[in-house]
Amino acid sequence: MNIKNTQHTVLYEKNTLVNSYETQEKITWCSGCGNHAIRNALIDALALENLTQQDVILCYDIGCNGNEADKITANTLHGLHGRVLPLAAGVKLAQPNTVVIAQAGDGATFSEGIGHLVHAVRSDYPLVFLLHNNHNYALTTGQPSALTPCGAKRSATDGHTPQRPLHPMQLIMSLEPSFYARGFSGEREQLTELIRHGIHHHGFACVEVLQSCPTYAKEADNSYYWERIRQIENRTHYDINSYADALILAHEDAKNGTFHTGVLYTNTTQKSEYLHYQSTRKDLSTEPWAEVTPRDVSPLLARL
Amino acid sequence: MKRILIAGESGGGIVSTGEIVARALKNLGYWVVTEREFPSLIQGGHASYSVSFADEPLYGLSQRCDILLSLSKIGLQSFLPRLIDGGYLVHGYERLSGIQPELAECERRRIQVVHVRSREKAMELGGTELVKNMILLGMLWKTLGLPLPALESEITQQFGSKPALLAVDLTCAQWGYSAVQQQKSLLPPTQNPPLSLLTGNHAIALGAIQAGVRLYAAYPMSPSTGILKHLAEYADAYNLIVKQAEDEITAVSLVLGANYAGTRALTATSGGGFDLMTETLSLAMITETPLVIVLCQRPGPATGLPTWTAQSDVHLALYAGHGEGARVVLSVSDPADSFTLIQTALNISEQAQVPVILLSEKQICEHLYTVETSSLEAFPIERNLTAEPPVAAEKPTHGLRYQLTESGISPRWVPTKAPSVFCANSDEHTPDGTLTEDASVASSMYKKRIQKLNHIRDHLIPPPEYIGPPEPNIAFIGFGSNKNIMQDVISLMSIKGVQVGYLHFPCLSPLDTKAISTLQEQCKGRIHLIEGNATGQFGQLIEQHCGPLFRGKLLKWDGRPFYQEEVIEYIEHYINS
């Protein structure tokens, strides 16, 4: 399916499936926070993919993103700081036919959760991972994260972040992921399409979302991003299936302070560890959640 | 009852030799208990494998052996002191001049020496140096007067996959058997019920499969690694997902996520790995997600004694994790209840939606025990799932996953498989999972979760078991592998006219205090604690509930299990004073 050409306008006001994800709960994010748009893009993507509450489980880390867990009518699992990837992988292993979407911020993902990130990429779990990148720990009131630009003003520092930042695409591309996309909370329709691409991908679909945080990352408002964003379609001689092209792009963006957006890399030929686990289950049509029945181990006991 | 000690070096074929002896004896109908001592390295360093066997029920270990089968000089020197006076030494050294002091000791202590030059002969018969172990096995078998076919058949089992090697192994065993004089004429028992020989880790793996576990995730750590190894071996046959995770946090997170999504998943670790799992234990408490962690104990702190045994993580299991909530701590005593208690643990964790920690110990995890085959019992699976979640009229989209009930246990269903949604929230929440900071709701939810313990204690846990005569002269309370040594000691002391009782707890928490009150009525002032740690951790829990109780405490923390001599000495000291 070629999602890129799908024409749609913002659905959230008229589509019943979109409405089914809404709740009466009061949203608790700041006014102007990128999370509002990310949430709407997610709901639009689910509705455009015709996914109902019976088709999807949403997993949340701790951070501002996690405050969505009870503000959306969906099956949700709100876990611990930095741990959402293994938690979501567990959900997916139990329900392989369910779409599992994990969300976490840059604070958790690139500090406490960095080991989980590395191994989730390596294992290529078929999850959509929405990386909310707002360059700070917002829920704890604006400390620098590992992605905060050097010198940026944050709390709990002497005024300016002293260390150089990690660049998420550079780091993740070094791990040979099977999918990397980047969107922006200010560009909701594109973000919706990127999430849909992620849902269609058969491995670990990392969608980095540049997220404005008007409260704590004041240097990076929407206009900051608009100046630096480049559409990947406009880059000449770029092949989204070329690992070399993606590595060069990641390096250039990090060096130049630019952000290319779009699906930046896909590799659909990668053999994932996740599929290896399924090799022990090749003749089964059932899923592990439905298989909890007594297994006869008497042939094994007889050998003892 | 006889005890054989095989002594040698790590990497010298000691385990396969010991297992052949243990299995061959079991196949002859004997009760068998084994113990392995080995350092945390792959080659070199002295190591031993002891096989105790009897034609009557046998459960525990002794410091002494009747027969020492020595595979190397270092083994002989390290373990000769444990051979009884008048026992047998079976060895195969070429250079007898190198072990003159040991041979002199044997003469002084009337130890019979059974000897051929085994390495030379093994090479002559076409084997490598390691094959000398088969010659020594043949010599051992003849010394005991046991039938050769039982040994041959077990050697065939062990090395059947390598036919060329097998032929040499059998020739060597036969040669060793014919080369020495028979010393004993043991008659294999005929009355014993069918017995199975397995380790605790193997039993946990089998019990988990029996109980419908579909996913196992773990990080290697002694002494829990055997569970991972066994389940990986059975993954194809039972369509399991077996995941070696990148760390214990990942392992337990995968398990929690999978359990939330409706399957049965399991993890196991040792103390250090459990430390890393504790925040997820706390997550399981507030989200009321079933979670079973097998905690295989070894001595700490930190790396401690990685390949030795302990019962020192009781407090860790009882108190790990931030915040308060309900949990269950169970403890296995041998491979038989490893098989049954893992099923119980999985059931309780789903019935009450609480974390269950199943304690094991290196001595149980990694050692072969015979158990009555009939005791490897399969239990029905209890899941406590509903297909139609209740909803509140004002918010019908959301199921009342955390509905307040009398028992504190709420309806649970498989997310995506019911009409209403399931919100599992690590923040404090209302009955439908919505975040709340309301004092009264937070207070009632907190109380609901703790309150589950009453229902668990009254309806779900395995009860304490009293072993021994009524109104004993002295009684012990304990858990885990101590049950084994106490069973042997109760029989041995009863022959000496001393009545010993033992109250065994398969469930440490929530604590069933009724059996303690009963014991107190019969045996006031004569109750002692037996525990494999330095501070009497389970005893502290008991005294928190029951007040001062113990006359004395038999504690041990040197990495070794209890041996019968130590318990008997302790009892005799008290009886005589």
Provide the descriptors you would attach to this structure in a database record:
heterodimer; A: Rossmann fold; globular; B: Pyruvate-ferredoxin Oxidoreductase, domain 3; Rossmann fold; 7-stranded mixed β-sheet; 6-stranded mixed β-sheet; 40% helix
Secondary structure: elements and pairs:
The complex is a heterodimer of chains A (304) and B (577).
Chain A: H1 16-21, H2 34-48, E1 56-60, E2 75-78, H3 84-94, E3 99-105, H4 106-109, H5 114-123, E4 128-133, H6 168-174, E5 179-184, H7 188-200, E6 205-210, H8 222-228, E7 229-231, H9 243-256, E8 259-266, H10 273-278, H11 298-301
Parallel strand pairs in A: 1-2, 1-3, 3-4, 4-6, 5-6, 7-8
Antiparallel strand pairs in A: 5-8
Helix pairs in contact in A: 2-7, 6-9
Chain B: E1 2-9, H1 14-27, E2 31-37, E3 46-54, E4 65-70, H2 73-79, E5 83-91, H3 100-108, E6 112-115, H4 118-124, H5 132-144, H6 148-159, H7 163-179, E7 195-198, H8 200-210, E8 215-218, H9 225-238, E9 241-244, H10 248-260, E10 265-269, H11 271-287, E11 291-297, H12 314-319, E12 328-331, H13 335-352, E13 355-361, H14 362-365, E14 369-372, E15 391-392, E16 395-399, E17 423-425, H15 439-460, E18 465-467, E19 474-478, H16 482-495, E20 500-504, E21 507-509, H17 514-523, E22 527-531, H18 537-546, E23 552-555, H19 564-576
Parallel strand pairs in B: 1-4, 4-5, 5-6, 8-9, 8-10, 10-11, 11-13, 12-13, 19-20, 19-22, 22-23
Antiparallel strand pairs in B: 1-3, 2-3, 7-14, 12-21, 15-16, 18-20
